[in-house]
Structure formats: C-alpha cells, structure tokens
Amino acid sequence: MDFPRLVRLNPNIPWKTRGNGAVAVVLSVPENLVEEVVDSVSSLVESLTRSEETSLIFYKGVPSRKVRKIAQEALYRAISLREAEKVLEEERNILALWNGSRKGLIGALAAIGYEFSYDYTFELLAYRVPENYGKPRRVSRRSVLLMDEKTRPYTFNNIDHETGRILITPHGPDPVLVGIRGETPESVFEAYKLLEIEEPVEGWLILKTNQGTNEHLRKKIPLRELQLYVSAVVEGTLIEDPRVIRGGHVIAKLSDGEASIYLAAYKETGEVNEALRLLRRGDVVEAYGGVKRIDNNMYTLNLEALKVLRLCNAYLERAPKCPRCKKAMKSLGKDKGYRCKKCGYVDAKATKVRVYLKREVAVGRLFLPPPRSHRHLTKPRIRYSMRLAREDAFPPKVPWCFFNE
Questions:
Q1: Whole-model pTM?
Q2: Three-class secondary structure of residue 178 per DSSP
Q3: pLDDT value, residue 101
Q4: Domain 218-312+357-373 fold
C-alpha cells in the first residue's frame, strides 16, 4: 500500500546492527489469506536471514499510541527489551511473531510504529546476484561522478568531494550493490539510470526512509538528564579550554550551570574537530551527538555536529617586547622581570602582556562532518536549503521495484 519503509534508529546503541535499521511493509490482505501470508513471509525471512538479531512482527490495523511512542523514543534513547515485550504483551493487534533472537523485537516494533513526519527521503537499493557476494563491486566511477553532477542536490552523499571517495557502494559482503539516496522516487530512479553497472543485478527497490533527516537529534536535553547511549542536543558554556589528545581528537568540558559533560570531536569529524579546537573557555555552543562512556567515571558526548552560539573575549599572555629592539624578551624567573636576549636590556618590573585573541570561528554556523563520516541519519549540508512540496502518492510516476525472476 506504500513504499517499503526503511527506518534508522538511534545510532549510538552499541549492540545495534551496522546501520541500526528496521524495515516495515504495509500490505492489504483479504482475511482468508492472512494466515497464508504470515506463513509465507515467515518462511522466506527465516530462509534468507544471516543475522541472529532478526525478528519479524505481523501487526493488524493502525499502530497504537504505545507502539508509536516506542518508535519515536527508539530514535534517540536505549529501549530495553522488557519495554518492548511489555508493549507486545498488551497489544491485541499482533497477528504473529517470528524470532531469530528477541533483540530484534525492538527494531521490528519501532518500524511498525514509526510515523514519517515533515521530513523524509528515499533510497534506491540495487542488489547483487548471490555468486558475487564478497567480490569487488563493479560500478563505473566515471558514471557515478556524472550521476552526482547531474542529479545533485536532488540526490546526496553520492561521493565525498574532498577525497573523491565513492559513497554509494558499500564495502562489505552484503547483497547491496549500490544505494542512492535522494529527495524523491523520481530523483533516485533517474540517478540509477545514469550509472554504468558492470555486473549482473538481481533487482532494485525504492524505499521511503528517515535517512539524512537528523531525526535522532531533535530532542534538546539538560545535561543533568543525559543518559548513556542517548542521542541529544545540548547547550552550554565551555568551562575549560579544549585540548588535543593523541590521534588529533579534541576534548572540551561543557557546563549548563547544573551539570557538565565532556565533548569529544574525533579527527574524522573534519570541520567539527577543527571548530572545537579553536574555541576557548567561556564560549557558548550547541552540541549534537551521542553519550558514550570512556570509563566508569567519565562520560562524553561524541559530537556529530556543533554550532557556536557566542564567543567570549579571549586573550593570550605573551612575553613583553624589548623597547629597544622590539624582540620578545625572556623571563628571568618568577617576579624577577625580563631580559632581551638580543641586546641585553633588562626590565626588573616587566610582566607578561595580555594580547586580544582574534577569533576565527563563525558564530551561528552549523559545523558538520564530511560526507564520508556521516551516519545514516546525519542530515547533509545540501539538504538544509531544500524546500520540497512532498507528494505521498503511491505508486509513484516512475517504477519503484524490479526483480529478475
């Protein structure tokens, strides 16, 4: 009755599948065929799944408020298995369950209850023939570059323009050949037609999805309420100068007046890392990310985006300059003044000089990681300026699936 739905959930859950994704399909089934459909789909999923995390739920009718609530909260916090099981026990519309393991119940329930809001995207997934699983993918690089040029901004994250890395082809042994993300079914279909694929394709499918929407980062949370694995937006003031640690990662301590947490910007986050290292104690920021634990006593908010709200007046302390030759002087020890190394001039009363630090960080700009470091839910910069009139018509004006018999 609609596009297959690909729902990405909280990316900060450590026991998630690779993309923490769940899929829902909405069907219209005559009552006398329901049992046959349940048996057929269960057998098919059981025969194809390679993951013990897979679960399958058959739900009849419109999802209840409790199911919708689980789906909404699964975007930004950790849902316990007991929470999901309690909802399932109370639901009268559950027709059947199939479990590889119970963990998958959370994702399956969230996929059923998820409501697409004002923002969503589409992804065309093309699949490989089984004999090519694990082999290098053969898609013409030239055609990907051309496709990106012709379809951007209506498709996104096709390539990483800084490095030239192709992003539409995964690297693992999974069945997916390419995944093209875009604003409409038409845009991803037209983009797919521009590709030169040099291996057999088993089929392709267009899915409606919340990828590229920042759907997990819509909830602003006071620091005192942060919990492990939560994805959140927080606001506060830096109470320490940021420091660069091994590997080029940056750590800074943030406070909102009631609680504090460390912000962590990994080197791979690009301009997020670069912006954080330019900040100073007293700067006010809005930070987006997920709560992780480094050890028993230290939590960090691993940054996925950063916005600078206000910059303080920052100063540096420097050695005074020699009044004779204008060169920096050298300290003679605490409270003993300074001496010029070049001409020997001594000033026993000289002290360090405060110099105003010119700030080079843009206030109000949202700093984002490069596309190669985006998570599935990360909203790319190109989408912030998109204003589309959404059409929910199904089937669309273009084909939405094709599979070889």
A1: 0.89
A2: strand
A3: 67
A4: OB fold (Dihydrolipoamide Acetyltransferase, E2P) (2.40.50)
